[in-house]
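pasting for the record
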Amino acid sequence: MKVTEVLSREEIAAFNKKSDASGVWTVVFNWGLIAGLLATVAAWPNPLTVVVALAVLGGRQLGLAVLMHDCGHRALFRSSRLNLWVGRWLCAAPVFGELDSYFEKHQRHHIKAGSEEDPDLANYRDYAVTKASFRRKIIRDLTGQTGVRTLARAIRVGGMRYLYRPLVANGLLLGVLWLVGYPALYLLWIGAYLTTNMLVSRLRQAAEHAVVPDLFDPDPRLHTRTTIAGWWERLVLAPNHVNFHLEHHLLPSVPPYRLSALHRTLEARGFYDRADIARGYREVVGRLTIPDSAPSTAPQAV
């Protein structure tokens, strides 16, 4: 069954409708939360506020990467030019991303998802893994090992073309923090990028496509997962509706602020009978891991 069999042309057009006001609010909300976290640490510098800030900042950095992705799809604003400018400068560059090269690869992911030619397959095909292996991945992420390798690889592959906007954006961020008298807060930004951001990014990638009913079936209901996230998961693990990944693969042009409504409509019409809908990220992690004594399973097995 295709999504066009349960939604009319008019309904699809309504879900695809972009709102500049909603797009602006989404970007402002993300940066407002970032500013609030940094201000909280500046006002009450102690281990608790630093730990909380690191956890939530990592999620918000993922949130900016998600908005970069949405702008690449021209799905955040009505104007293509606005999508590109905001995506490049306000979303990608602060988190050391580069919209154009990212989206070139991401388009291939949408075309080839559900096949051996998916360029992102390495991020999720080897799950499920043992609990010990999963713990080692978490340790590498939270100690910065993954972050340093990721950044070094991006710089090596992209060179100055990759570095230009990230250096400008991060220089401006450091300059603003310097002007308000708290330049040391930039270390919090870099620390979150190298640690918690890497962990939540790993969980996001695995939650979307790992240990699904059939990773190599062209039906998105079989090779892509949606996760129903609670409020704290949306704050830290699933910013900007990224948890509705199945819906995104069904209709990539739907803006993020309409994905939850699309999910409810399709659910009410019985479209998800064959789909993998997880109830929270704890359930997802349970599927991603197996006991240490068990042999590794194929990624298609739930």
